[in-house]
Amino acid sequence: MSQQQARTTQRRRRRELALNLGAVAGLVCIVIAVVSMTFGIKPLVFRSGSMSPQIPTGSLAVARTVPAAQISVGDVVSVDNEAGTRITHRVVAVDPAGGDKVALIMKGDANRVADPTPYLVDHADRVITSVPFAGYVAAWLSSKTAIFLGGVLAGALLMLAFGPLRRSSNDASNDTHQTETLDEPADSSEAKLQEANCG
């Protein structure tokens, strides 16, 4: 295998790798989007230690939206307070509030007392599971730096995926010239040999 063929093979392999990585990343994004829309799944990042030690600061939780009728004492749910601030605490009491709504009394595991005001809701995001400290990674991925680096990586993958595979015309010309140059001595030797035989 010539050096040019080896370089072409390497470029082809890099292109296949880039396409495979892009396909996997795209598939993961599609799966996450479908699961989120179908089952009401959403991520939650814990920015305080009010739910420690079970859910420490920086944890990443996965929550599912459920109707108020399915909320029970002991559940960890996430709701908005009157000021629009997201609160994720444990339910310590559930009181009917008429219709499909309930009044939730909530308390952080690390807090000594319950939240001062009940939360009137007809649905809430109930925590399914959590991963300690993964929230720091999620927060970084949403930062401007991560977005910029992601764009650079995407550009690099595109260059690898769609870079030229064919040899340049200059390389082809050089190969042709080299072939012709190598053929000339052989022709001259044959001519000299024929002349010698004729004499």
TrEMBL record:
<dbReference type="GO" id="GO:0004252">
    <property type="term" value="F:serine-type endopeptidase activity"/>
</dbReference>
<dbReference type="InterPro" id="IPR019533">
    <property type="entry name" value="Peptidase_S26"/>
</dbReference>
<keyword id="KW-0812">Transmembrane</keyword>
<protein>
    <recommendedName>
        <fullName>Signal peptidase I</fullName>
        <ecNumber>3.4.21.89</ecNumber>
    </recommendedName>
</protein>
<keyword id="KW-0472">Membrane</keyword>
<feature type="domain" description="Peptidase S26">
    <location>
        <begin position="25"/>
        <end position="104"/>
    </location>
</feature>
<feature type="region of interest" description="Disordered">
    <location>
        <begin position="169"/>
        <end position="199"/>
    </location>
</feature>
<dbReference type="GO" id="GO:0006465">
    <property type="term" value="P:signal peptide processing"/>
</dbReference>
<feature type="transmembrane region" description="Helical">
    <location>
        <begin position="21"/>
        <end position="41"/>
    </location>
</feature>
<dbReference type="GO" id="GO:0016020">
    <property type="term" value="C:membrane"/>
</dbReference>
<dbReference type="GO" id="GO:0009003">
    <property type="term" value="F:signal peptidase activity"/>
</dbReference>
<dbReference type="InterPro" id="IPR001733">
    <property type="entry name" value="Peptidase_S26B"/>
</dbReference>
<dbReference type="Pfam" id="PF10502">
    <property type="entry name" value="Peptidase_S26"/>
</dbReference>
<feature type="transmembrane region" description="Helical">
    <location>
        <begin position="146"/>
        <end position="165"/>
    </location>
</feature>
<keyword id="KW-1133">Transmembrane helix</keyword>
